[in-house]
Amino acid sequence: MAMDGNKITETVSWRNITEGCKIEAAGNSRLFNTGDWRVDTPVFIAEKCRQCLLCVSVCPDSSIPVDNYQRGDFDFMHCKGCGICAKVCPFGAIEMKMGER
Amino acid sequence: MTYNFKEIMNKKERLAPGHRMCAGCGGTIAVRNILRGLRDQDQAVITCATSCLEVSTFMYPHTAWQDSFIHNTFENAAATCSGVQAAYEVLRKKGRVDGTYKFIAFGGDGGTYDIGLQSLSAAMERNHDMVYVCYDNGAYMNTGIQRSSATPLYADTTTSPVGKLSKGKPQYRKDLTAIMVEHNIPYVAQTTLFRNMRDIHEKAARAIYTPGAAFLNVMAPCPRGWVYETADIMEICRLAVDTCYWPLFEVIEGQWVLNYKPTNKLPVEEFLKKQGRFKHLFKKGNEQLIEHFQAEVDKRWRVLLERCGS
User: Fold this and answer.
1) How far is CA B23 from CA A8, A53, B30, B223, B225, in A?
2) Rounded CA separation B186/B255 (Å)
3) Contact (Cβ atoms closer than 8 angstroms) between residue A84 and residue B231
4) pLDDT tens figures, B9-48
5) Taking CB atoms and an 8 Å cutoff, what residues of chain A touch B199?
6) Does A53 touch chain B (CB under 8 A)?
7) How confident is the model at residue A1 (pLDDT cuts 50, 70, 90)?
8) Rounded to whole angstroms, how far apart are CA atoms A71 and B135?
9) What is the interface pTM, i.e. ipTM, of the complex?
10) Phi/psi at B48 (nearest 5 deg)?
11) A27 CB near a chain B CB, below 8 Å?
12) CATH T-level topology, domain A34-101
């Protein structure tokens, strides 16, 4: 039975959950917003960025999208604001806005 | 093969966001970099021991994994993974499954050093074509930072609390990587998040594509349990390597190879002072505790240098 992750919520009846709680989807955690956990927010300064992609390798939340060897702006639906990327950036292209979402 | 960092960062992402691991978690950084060791055209079957990683990436009805995922119980990630792998071999021989599948089991240090050690040992002994990855954060972080046999000496945990009569965990940590080497499997390596991730990436790729059993031990700092600012993770990992607390080495078919030797071996307190769990070591009167810690690090480093013949 194919399952739509959107239709199963905390209020679902046991009759309507999937057999054995199988999840027949890949990477559908994307639907879940973890961006609202954020306390500090990274700001991407595109003109300072040299596309070294070091920030991409250290993101715990896969929140720096890469397309054709170029990083884009943050995925703020999922970024939890840990600040690791800002710390490793050699060019100062990521600044943390402290206490702001 | 040369290491092309940008090429690797451009690969498709196999761990989706939206998982509930903490902000700044070292475990997910390790997992993302290990999964990039897979070739894009290959599929993976991921097994998890019960751990932060398991409960946070696979919350019904959501999965963060792009590949097949199975969780069984705390102690049998390696047994589960080896069973699926054996079934795959049979189906492949019968021509009932297409494509190449690789088998990776993830466990924390609790699920690997302690609870899952028997099933891990057995799976390695049977030499299944799989990789077991231990992401070692040095305590049972998932259940509230209880000490494990991977917890370092004097660390403050909830079951080795620092107080008037206790200086933190009184025992040294288990050397699981060496225990796995003694299983005489084709590939064993120890790594962490270091510089541009070359070390972890190359070891992951090698482990995944080595026929037979492979074991990776990856130090993955935990901001909650180690008590440090989330942004400092890469600095902490660098200090762990540069103080020789967590050396980077691999053992290929029984041959020990040291992958990185710091030109300037730092005193271990550089690594310790960054972390709140060792705060008590820097109180007046506790200087000898740091000396004990340093002596153990030096001893293990000497043994490793001998094994690697360097």
Assistant:
1) 26, 20, 14, 9, 13
2) 10
3) yes
4) 999 999 999 999 999 999 999 999 999 999 999 999 999 9
5) none
6) yes
7) very low
8) 27
9) 0.94
10) -125, 140
11) yes
12) Alpha-Beta Plaits (3.30.70)
Q: Do B25 and A60 touch (CB under 8 A)?
A: yes
* B108 in Cβ contact with B141 (< 8 Å): yes
Beta bridge partners of B107: B134
Q: Which residue has the higher pLDDT, A17 or B248?
A: B248
B:157-196 residues touching chain A, CB 8 A cutoff: 193, 196
Q: A17: which chain B residues are within 8 Å (Cβ-Cβ)?
A: 60-61
CATH superfamily label, B5-307 = Thiamin diphosphate (ThDP)-binding fold, Pyr/PP domains (3.40.50.970)
Task: Specify the domain boundaries for CATH 3.30.70.20 within chain A.
Answer: 34-101
pTM reported for the whole predicted model: 0.96
When scoring A11, A51, A62, A77 by the number of chain B Cβ atoms within 10 A, the one with the most, hence best to mutate, is A62
pLDDT of B55 strictly over 50: yes
Q: For B6, which of A69, A75, A83 is closest by C-beta distance?
A: A69
Closest Cα in chain B to A88:
B234
